[in-house]
Recover the amino acids of this structure.
């Protein structure tokens, strides 16, 4: 059985790699993108089970990325969770753009793990991380 794929999208390389390492330790296959266009291409090709998406990206914002993903029939069902350091756009973004959830930075590992496991079942062979 293939391990579930999670797409992590953030232009800040250190954070992206930290999240990827954390999720890999939980047993997931982690795909990474540093910008919105790349994230869309990867999502189309790989069809991840979950997308963790930074709200601010260099080429387009996370809301626009989510809007475009929702318009593609074979991936529009994928849960999209955005994260941001600014709580103000949280409710507006969720309601207007079909986002599944929103996390505020910084995110505690146990919160992130619970959120991921809410959308993607924990792989059978997972290491007990965090």
């Amino acid at each position: 059985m293939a391990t579930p794929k999670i797409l992590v999208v953030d232009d800040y390389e250190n954070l992206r790699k930290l999240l990827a390492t954390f999720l890999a330790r939980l047993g997931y296959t982690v795909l990474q993108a540093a910008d919105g266009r790349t994230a869309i291409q990867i999502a189309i090709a790989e069809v991840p089970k979950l997308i963790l998406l930074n709200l601010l990206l260099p080429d387009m914002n996370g809301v626009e990325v989510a809007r475009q993903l929702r318009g593609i029939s074979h991936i529009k069902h994928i849960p999209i969770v955005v994260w941001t350091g600014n709580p103000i756009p949280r409710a507006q973004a969720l309601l207007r753009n079909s986002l599944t959830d929103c996390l505020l930075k910084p995110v505690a590992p146990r919160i992130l793990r619970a959120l991921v496991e809410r959308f993607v079942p924990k792989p059978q062979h997972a290491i007990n991380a965090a």
User: Anything to note?
Assistant: The CA atoms of residues 36 and 64 lie 8 Å apart.
